[in-house]
Amino acid sequence: MNAAVLRPKIRKNDMVMVVKGRDRGKTGKVLKVLPDEGRVLVERLNIVKRHSKPRGAASPGGIVEKEAPLRLENVMIFCDRCNAPVRAGWKLESDGGKSRVCRRCGETIGND
Predict the structure, then answer these.
(1) What is the pTM of this model?
(2) CA–CA dist 10, 65 (Å, integer)
(3) What are the Cα distances from residue 99, in Å, to 9, 94, 102?
C-alpha cells in the first residue's frame, strides 16, 4: 500500500486545487478525507447526478446532484501565499510538534 494513502497530508477544511481530470484548475474546500480509499471529497467539485426513489412525503424522488470523491493524487494543497497548488512537507517545531509547510515558500499550512 502506498504511504500517501496511509497518511495523507490533506486534511478537512484545507483549500485544494484539482490538477488532473474534468475539474482541472478549480479550487474548493475539503469536506471529508477517506484515507482507506485514497480519496477526498471537495465542496462543489466532481458533481455527479444520482437518481433517488421517493421515500414518503419527506423525501420526494428525483435526480439529485452531489459531490463524488476525487483521488488524492488528483488534488494538491493550495497555498495562499504562493497563489498556486503546492506540495506539503513536515517541519519539526521547537516544542516537539509537527506542522505542515509549503515546499515552495516555507509558509505553515492550515491550523495544525
Answers:
(1) 0.86
(2) 25
(3) 10, 11, 10
Contact 73, 37 (CB under 8 A): no
Kindly report the CA angle at 60 between 55 and 62, in degrees rounded to 5? 115
3-state secondary structure the chain: CCHHHHCCCCCCCCEEEECCCCCCCCEEEEEEEECCCCEEEECCCCEEEEEECCCCCCCCCEEEEEECCEEHHHEEEEECCCCEEECEEEEECCCCCEEEEECCCCCECCCC
Residue 67: exposed, middle, or buried by beta-carbon count in 10 A (0-12, 13-18, 19+)?
middle
pLDDT of residue 8: 87
User: Residues 73-107: pLDDT tens digits?
Assistant: 999 999 999 999 999 999 999 998 999 999 999 99
